[in-house]
Amino acid sequence: MVRVVLPDFLQAHTGKGRDIEVNAGSYAELIASFEREAPGFEALVSKKATTVIDGEIVPDPMFDDLREDSEVCFLPKLSAG
Q1: Mean pLDDT in the chain?
Q2: pTM score, whole prediction
Q3: Which structural domain range is residue 18 located in?
């Protein structure tokens, strides 16, 4: 199962905890799983989060495959100001 780390704003949106496990073979499957349970998840991630897969920032992860032991972290985007 893929380990997923959610920041506070995604925890609030999904009603899930910080560290969860999701059965997904690709990033698209992972997003679809969240989207079924918490509509609007994909839009929120694309607007407010940076995706890190197995320790690497991935700017466009939609076509990335995930391993059973992968870790996906959604980090809040930083804004200059």
Answers
A1: 95
A2: 0.92
A3: 2-76
